[in-house]
Amino acid sequence: MLKGYFYRWHVLGLSIGMIRNHLKILFRTSLRDLGFTLINILGLMLGIASCIAITLFVKEELSYDTFHNDYDKIFRVYTERTYSDRVVYGAPLPVPFANEINNIYSEVSSILEVRPAGKRLFKIADKLIYEHSGMYASEDFFEFFNLGVISGEVKKSLSQPDNLIITESMAKKYFGANWSNVVNEEVVIDNSHTYRITAIVKDPPSNFHLKFDYLISRPTLNKYLSDRDKQNWLSPRHYVYLRLNKASDRRQVEDYLSELTDKVVDPKSADLGYTYEYLLQPVKDIHLHSNDLRYDIAEKGNVIYVKGLTAIAALILLLACANFINLSTARASKRAKEVGLRKVSGASRTQIIIQFLSESFVLVVLAMILGALLVEISLPFYNTLLNESLEFTILQDNSLLFILCGILMTTSILSGGYTAFYISSIKPARVLKESNSSKGFNRLRRVLVVFQLSISLMLILGSIILYNQIDYLKNKDLGFNKNEIVVLPVYSDVKSQLNALKNQLLKSANIESVTASYGLPGSFIQGDNVFVESANSELPVKMYLVDNEFIETLGMEIVSGRNFNGTKADEQFGFIANEKAIEMMGFTPETAIGQNLEWNMWIAGDTTKKGPIIGVVKDFNYGSLHQAVEPVIIHQFKQEISHLAIKIKSANIDRTLDFIESTYSEIDNNRPFSYSFLDEYFDRFYKNEQSFSSVLQVFTFLVILVATLGLLGLAAYSMVSRRKEIGIRKVHGATVQNIIKLIHSDIFRLTIYSTIVAIPITIYLANQWLENYAYRVSIGWQPIIASISIIIIITSLTVIYFSTKAALTNPATVLRNE
C-alpha cells in the first residue's frame, strides 16, 4: 500500500530527488535574474504585509461583542423618530421604558439598564482624581456581558444602592500593590456621596462596545431622579438591552414595542410633529452599525471603513501577484525553451505545472516570512494610526493562522498559476523553433499594467478626496468661533459665586469675555419642546440655557432683532431662536420678532416661562457635520448652569491658564482644577475619519511602491528584450529623443486606459461615501488632475532611466551581439 502511495507521488514528479531538482532550478534562475527575483519578493512581501495588517484590524472590528454567551439573543433597544421631512435614530430611551416592559413579554428573559455617570470626582485616601468613564448599571450587567470578575459578588453589588464596582486598572491606580484587597473600602464621590467598593472586575476587553472604569448600582440613581424624569416618555436618558429567549423572537418583540408606542408614546409626541418607533439592534452590530444613532455611548467603528480596508487588502495582494505574473511572463521566452527541452526529455505537463507552482510557493513563503516580520516591527506605528491595541499572535489564534494559510495558498496560485499552465501547454517543436515565445503574454502584461495603474490612481484620488473632506470638516465656518475658548465645569458650590468669579476673570487683559451656560456646542445639548402661540402647537428643539454673554463670547451672528441686554425682563421672558427654528415655526427672521413662545420650566410644579422672541441668530453647527442643523432655542435660566466658557487671546495662553486656575481655585479649592478647549470637542467627532485617512495614505503609498516596483522590473526587462529593435531603429536614423518618445508613448497609452477605468469608479464610490455627511466638499477637477499628474510622473520616472540607457546604447554593439 505504501509502495503504491509513493509511486503516485513519483509519477506526479514529487519524489525527493525531483523536489531537490526543482529547488536547484529555482536557485539558479533566481541568481541568474537576481534583480527581478528581489523585485518579486519585495513586492509580494509588501502586499502580504499589508494584507496581514489590514486583516488584524478587520478581524478585531468584526469580533466586537461576539464573546458573550448567547450573544445572538442580546439586543439593544433604540428609537426611530419620524418627522415630516426626516427620520432621526437615537440610542437612549426614556427612564420609564424598562419598568413599563419588565415582566410583560414572555419572549424577554431579562432587561438591562445602563446610563453614563459623567465626569465625577473620586476621593480615595489622599487621592483626588476626576474620572470620566463610568456608568450606572442594573443587576444583570454581568449576566448579559461576559466580563471577568476578580473578587466580590457583582449581581448583589448592582442590586443595592451606594455600591461601586471598579476595574482592575482603577484599583491599581488608587491602591497600588494592595489593590486586590480593597473590597468594602469606602469612596467619596463629588465631595458629597459615600460609596462602598463591593467588587473588582477585569478591564473590559478591547472588543467590547462599552468602555468603563467603574460601575454604580442602578438603585443608587433612583435617589437622584425626579418624579418628572421617572414619568417623562419624551426625554431619553437610559440605554436598554434585552435578552430574548430565542433570537428569532426579535420581530415579535418589535411588534409588541410598536403597540407600546401607539398606546403610551405617540399620543404625547403626535402634537410635537413626530412619531416614535422602538427597534432592536443585535449587540454584535452595535460597534459597526450605529453611526446613524445619536447620543450613543458605544465605542463606534464604521462598517464602510472596514469594507474599504478589506477591499484595499485584496487589491494590494492582487497588485503584488500582478507584479509576479508580469515579470514571470516577461521572462517567458527563456523559461519556455527550458520547458521545451524538459518535455523532449520526457517530462509530463503535470510535472511542469508542479515545478512552476512549487517555485512560486517557495518565493511566496519567503515573502510571507519577511512580510510577517515587517508587520511585527511596524505594529506599534500601525496601532498609533488606528488608535488600537492590535496584537500579532499567530500561534495563539487559530483563526488568524487559518487566514494566513489562505493568503499563502491564494497568493501562490495567483502568482504562479497562469505562468505554469500557459508555459506547460506550449508545444516543444514551436518553442524550440521560435526565438521569442512570450508573444502571447504581451496582451496580458498590458492588462495587468492597466490594472496596477488603475488601482494606484483610485487610491491616490480617494486619499485626496478624503483629505479634502476632513480638512473641510475641521475648517468649515460653524457659525460661531470655537477657537481660543477655555471650558470649565461649574459645580453647585460655585454657582452661588458665579458672578464674582466672572468679574474676577475679566480683570485679566488676556480674557476677552466669559459666559455661563447649560450645554455648549460640541458638548451636550438638551432637547425639549416649546409651545408656539401663533401656531397653537409645540415644536421639538435643541436648547441652550445661558447668560447675557453667551452669543457674544461664542461669536454668533444676530441676523434679526437683538441680543440679551442684561435686563430682568430678558432673563424672565426673552427667547432667541436660530434660523432653522424660525423656518419650522413658519416665520421669516423679521416677522419672528415679538412672536410668543412658552416653555415648561425645569422646576417643581407646573411653571411656565412665556415671552417673545427678541432675536434670531444665524444657524450654527453645534454638533457633527454628519447631521444638518436643527431648531435651537437660546434663553436664560440660571438655575441650570453646567459650564463656564472663557474667550482668551491667542498670546500668552499658558500665563492666562495659570491665572484662570488660581482665580477658580480661590472659589473652589475642594476639587482639582480641570479645563478643556472647545475646539477639542469637535475634533472627537471626526476621530474615525482621521484614523482612516492616515491609514489610507500609508496603504496608498504602499500600493504606489508595489506598482512602481513592478513597472521598474518590467521596464528593465522590456529594454533588454527590445534592444535589437532599438538598435535597428537607430541604424535607420532614429534619434535618442525618438526612442525615448516611443517607449514613453506605450506607458502613456496604458496610463490613459487606467484613467478611463479608475476615475468614474472612484468618483462614484466617493460620492456614495460623501452622502453620509450633511455638509461635504464637491469633488471638482483639481483632485482628478492632481492624481493623474502623480501617476504620470511616477510612471515617467520609473521608465526614464532604462529608456534613456537603451536609447544611448551603441547599435553596433547590440546588433553584433544579436
Verbal overview:
This protein has 818 residues and is α+β, with helices and mostly antiparallel strands. Helix content is 52%, strand content 18%. Strand 10 (186-189) and strand 11 (193-201) form a beta hairpin. The two termini are 55 Å apart. Mean pLDDT is 84; it is low at 1-13.
What are the SSEs and their pairings?
Layout: H1 2-11, H2 16-32, H3 34-62, E1 74-82, E2 87-90, E3 93-94, H4 97-101, E4 108-116, E5 120-124, E6 127-131, E7 134-137, H5 141-144, E8 149-152, H6 154-157, E9 163-167, H7 168-175, E10 186-189, E11 193-201, E12 214-217, H8 218-222, H9 227-231, E13 236-244, H10 250-269, E14 275-282, E15 293-294, H11 303-330, H12 332-344, H13 349-386, H14 398-424, H15 428-433, H16 442-475, E16 485-489, H17 492-495, H18 498-505, E17 511-518, E18 526-532, E19 537-546, H19 550-553, E20 558-561, H20 568-573, E21 575-578, H21 579-585, H22 589-592, E22 596-600, E23 608-617, E24 632-636, E25 643-648, H23 653-667, E26 676-677, H24 678-685, H25 687-721, H26 723-731, H27 736-770, H28 782-808, H29 811-817
Parallel strand pairs: 2-15, 7-12, 9-11, 19-24, 21-23
Antiparallel strand pairs: 1-2, 1-13, 1-14, 3-13, 4-7, 4-13, 5-6, 5-10, 8-11, 9-12, 10-11, 16-25, 16-26, 17-19, 17-25, 18-19, 18-22, 20-23, 21-24, 22-23
